[in-house]
Amino acid sequence: MARTYQRILLKLSGESLMGNKAYGIDSERLGAYADEIIAVAEGGVQVAVVIGGGNIYRGMEAEGAIDRVQGDHMGMLATMINSLALQSALEAKGHKTRLMSAIKMDTIAEPFIRRRAVRHLEKGRIVIFGAGTGNPYFTTDTAASLRAIEIEADVILKGTRVDGIYTADPEKDPAAVRYERITFTEVYDKGLNVMDLTAFTLCNENKLPIIVFDMNKPGNLRKVVAGERVGTLVEF
After folding, report:
1. What is the DSSP string of 20-45?
2. Domains of the chain
3. Which of 29, 196, 198, 224 could form a disulfide with 19 if both were Cys (CB 3.0 to 4.6 A apart)?
4. Are 39 and 51 in contact (CB under 8 A)?
């Protein structure tokens, strides 16, 4: 498989795992994602994955009797549920994986150790990073940016249900126009929503490009890795 990137970090939202369900994990969508990820990994690309937990629980929505910090910890556990599900789906299809957690969970995951994560990638294992950064008040977008920088990924691929970054929300404004390429400065100036500001700034400061693309279209992940014009590239 032709490839532009040697090592990638794929960021998926928890909501993307719901498929057409209102809550939880859709097994068909999970299996489809596993197929896409394995196809890229078997093409020689080193793949790391971060998944959100919004299909189960969102810490920032904690209110009432639930303290925000407690809520964020609950959200981290939700990411681990999704990470375990993806690990199971990948291994059921015959690919070796490692799940690494930012919170100590020795019976189900390895602790995140940067050198160990890189070694797993070099050996061709798909590495899944769970539990966010391990700290409250940080999103899984920030966790994805941080882990990508730590493992020296070539790019962050943000898989969404839309095919890139638009001038406005394409689901609300039919006149919205998609950008093929845009700079970090332009995203700041135009107030576009790509990632939360902390995550986006981390990428900007560390010269890490981002590609936003439609993960639900079969073959898109392989096309992005091969350097085809899919989605929107955020560059410098």
Report:
1. TSSSS--HHHHHHHHHHHHHHHTTT-
2. 7-164+185-235 (3.40.1160.10)
3. 29
4. no
